[in-house]
Amino acid sequence: MINIALPKGRLGEKAYAMLEAAGYECNSIKEQNRKLIFENPEKGVRYFWVKPSDVVIYVERGAADIGIAGKDIILEYSPDIYELEDLGIGKCRMAVAAKKDFCDRRDRTLRVATKFPNIARSFYSKQSREIDIIKLNGSIEIAPILGLSDVIVDIVETGKTLYENDLEPKQDIVDISAILVANKVSYKFKNAEINAICEGIRKNITK
To answer: Which pLDDT does position 158 carry in this prediction?
Structure first.
């Protein structure tokens, strides 16, 4: 049985659709209930829904053999796992955004509000820029408006939310998409099964 961690939400639903198309369907996952674990013994798969940021933890620690995680989560947590395939879904980008009239003064510390402190720290360290990280968990866009931060580092999809709050992207950091990841031990001992799943979903990838 291959244990597969799926992120709750639209991304997980898209990922499951790819796995289903690859021949690893599990009809009970579509039932309207509060169950979190679903399995199809005939196909040898067990799915479970988890918080998107927790997928890499389940995979790294072996509770899941494989999972689907955003590149942002992988970069932020740097888990000891294998990245097997870019699924070409959930595309967006990590970017620096600020007020439209913002001008970076390098003679003072830059205040950066973000849900991704490690990504932000890595990005600015390459520029030898002194920063003050302000870790937030939601409503990042209001931080510059209220004077809490100078800039934000966050995921940008269309940019609509930024523009509606009088902000704009200033610098792109990295492109983001969903990645199929694997536990290192599982990949060694369940290699044939995991590779079969990889081959099946590759046929459904549009990059």
So the answer is: 86
- Rounded to whole angstroms, what are the CA distances from 53 to 27, 95, 152, 183, 199? 25, 19, 19, 16, 25
CB neighbours of residue 198 within 10 Å = 15
Which has the higher per-residue pLDDT, 206 or 120? 120
CA dist., res. 42 & res. 45, Å (int): 8
The dihedrals phi and psi of 100, each to the nearest 5 degrees, come to -60, -30
Give the strands of the sheet with 66-70, arranged side by side: 37-40, 45-50, 2-7, 66-70, 178-182, 82-86
Are the beta carbons of 155 and 53 closer than 8 angstroms?
no
Strands 167-176 and 151-156: unpaired
Res 40 pLDDT > 70 = yes
Per-position b or e across 56-65, b if 16+ CB within 10 A of its CB:
bbbbbeeebb
Count CB atoms within 10 A of the CB of residue 200: 15
Phi first, then psi, for residue 96 (nearest 5°) are -95, 130
Percent of the chain with pLDDT over 90: 86
What's the predicted TM-score (pTM) here? 0.91
Query: What does DSSP say about strands 66-70 and 151-156: parallel, antiparallel, or unpaired?
Result: unpaired
Is the separation of the CB atoms in 12 and 55 below 8 Å? no
Give the whole-angstrom CA distance, residue 140 versus residue 124.
Answer: 18
Tokens of 121: 């720290």
